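Hi R.,

As promised on Friday, here is the backbone we talked about, encoded as structure tokens. Could you run it through your design pipeline when you get a chance and send me back a sequence?
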């Protein structure tokens, strides 16, 4: 294997906060300047066996392996070398597409991958791939289209965002898809009468609740309600959550802290904290 490049040195500062309120609290408590600390980074490139230099996603499984999704295959790094998984058209156990859009590792170690035409899963410690794709003869299969974000809700279902061409209208259509990993059946959801809204991020909270960050379509008249949506499991619909100005321009990312509070990143540069139970 080609030797790794020399480590690059970066200086990071601990104690930084995104929220202005937290920064103000540090000042009020008389906290001194943050301590600087150096970290060493090594570069892993195509010379080390990486299948392609455009890395789209990174995950670590329960066995400690690092997985890198690229636009030309899935790569597993064991600390010494890469193992590359590519699509082989005549092999049903190979990956379904060379282009990796996103990945998710479940608590049992199963790795889920979203690709351009569907989703794949790999059991921990196995090289065999279970492929889920569109079947034109089966309405309960995954839809055709380009799959984006993928997340597991911890209850046996995997959720993805999908972009596809609506053949009846000739326009792009955005879907949210729930796949039952046991039966392979899929359920499709939309945002109702919000044609200018596109999904940007999707998050499953610790209780299995599904949250969707959305924004406006490029070039659209920006009508409708972008921002944060919550999935109502009883009614099986996505409902808009009013977070005020931080989210009116759209929500590009969602994260959850140790208290179960959600932090949403607004497209205008704002960050908002939200409690799913108290608002």
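Update: got your reply. Pasting your designed sequence below so it's all in one thread:
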């Amino acid at each position: 294997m080609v030797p790794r490049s020399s480590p690059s040195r970066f200086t990071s500062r601990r104690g930084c906060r995104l929220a202005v309120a937290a920064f103000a609290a540090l000042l009020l408590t008389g906290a001194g300047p943050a301590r600087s600390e150096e970290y060493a980074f090594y570069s892993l490139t195509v010379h080390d066996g990486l299948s392609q230099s455009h890395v789209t996603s990174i995950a670590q499984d329960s066995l400690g392996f690092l997985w890198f999704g690229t636009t030309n295959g899935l790569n597993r790094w064991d600390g010494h070398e890469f193992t590359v998984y590519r699509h082989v058209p005549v092999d049903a156990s190979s990956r379904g597409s060379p282009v990796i859009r996103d990945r998710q590792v479940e608590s049992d170690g199963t790795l889920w991958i979203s690709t351009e035409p569907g989703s794949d899963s790999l059991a921990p410690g196995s090289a065999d791939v279970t492929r889920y794709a569109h079947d034109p003869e089966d309405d309960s299969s995954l839809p055709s289209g380009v799959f984006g974000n993928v997340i597991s809700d911890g209850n046996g279902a995997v959720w993805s965002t999908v972009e596809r061409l609506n053949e009846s209208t000739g326009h792009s259509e955005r879907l949210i898809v729930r796949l039952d990993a046991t039966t392979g059946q899929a359920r499709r959801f939309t945002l109702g009468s919000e044609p200018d809204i596109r999904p940007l991020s999707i998050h499953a909270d610790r209780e299995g609740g599904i949250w969707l960050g959305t924004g406006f379509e490029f070039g659209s008249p920006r009508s409708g309600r972008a921002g944060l949506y919550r999935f109502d499991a009883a009614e099986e619909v996505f409902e808009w959550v009013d977070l005020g100005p931080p989210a009116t321009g759209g929500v590009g990312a969602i994260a959850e802290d140790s208290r179960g509070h959600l932090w949403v990143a607004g497209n205008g540069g704002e960050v908002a904290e939200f409690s799913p139970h108290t608002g």
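One thing I noticed while checking it: Residues 5-30, 88-96 have pLDDT under 50 and may be disordered.

Thanks again,
M.
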